[in-house]
Each structure stands twice: as C-alpha cells, then as structure tokens.
Design brief:
By secondary structure, the protein is mainly β. It has two domains: about 5-55, no CATH class; about 60-115, SH3 type barrels. Helices cover about 0% and strands about 40% of the residues. The strands form three sheets. Strands 6-3-2-1-7-8 form a six-stranded antiparallel beta sheet, with no helix packed on it. β7 (about 55-65) and β8 (about 70) form a beta hairpin.
Length: about 120
C-alpha cells in the first residue's frame, strides 16, 4: 500500500500530499515530488508544511469510480444503495472492498455537513 498522506496547510488552507512527519508537537506533510529533503542533523527541510492535525488522512491505496484516491476522512457515496459513509482507519485497517462502486463526494474537514 502507498504510505501517502494529505493534510490542510495551517498557513493557507491548501491541501498538501506526501509523507507525514510529527515533530515538536506539530504535524507536517513533506512533498517529495517537489524535491527537497529533511535533514535531522541540521534540522533543515524543504517542501515541508505544517498541517491541521484534524485534517490529516492516510491514503487507503484505493481509488473511487472516477479514479480519485480515497483517503481517511473522505466522505463516499455508494452507488448501489445511495448511502454516505466516512472513511475511517480501524484496528484492522481500512475496509474498502470495491472502489468502483464508490464516489468521493467530499471530506470531513471541508464538508462536514455531508454527514448530516
């Protein structure tokens, strides 16, 4: 499975995608695709952005019916029975059987009203 995370930046509310790093009581996303590095010895970082902890979600490794990656915290709609559900991590991992029957319609950070 891809160990990819996403989180909403603290400074400008844009979504970041990459590796999750926890340091000094904060959570950061490191975007390796843009180059840069994290160096523990010199405490230097490039393409490292602090994100809102409540917005962080891990990729499930699955995509929905439109090819969109499904993350923890996404809100999906099942096509068979028109039901909404929140994608959550459990002790057993993510339980998404068939992404082709799902559609990501939002996420709990940007669209909490979708779960009402």
């Amino acid at each position: 499975m891809i160990r990819n995370f996403r989180g909403k930046r603290v400074d400008n509310s844009e979504w970041m995608f990459g590796d999750r790093i926890c340091a000094n009581g904060r959570i950061y996303i490191f975007d390796k695709s843009k180059g840069g590095f994290v160096d523990d010895d010199e405490n230097a970082a490039y393409n490292l952005c602090q994100v809102l902890p409540e917005s962080v979600g891990q990729s499930t490794g699955e995509t929905d019916s439109h090819g969109k990656t499904i993350y923890g915290g996404d809100i999906c709609l099942t096509k068979e029975c028109n039901m909404k559900f929140l994608v959550k991590w459990t002790y057993a991992g993510f339980n998404i059987e068939d992404g082709e029957t799902l559609e990501v319609i939002g996420n709990v950070t940007d669209n909490p009203n979708l779960l009402e």
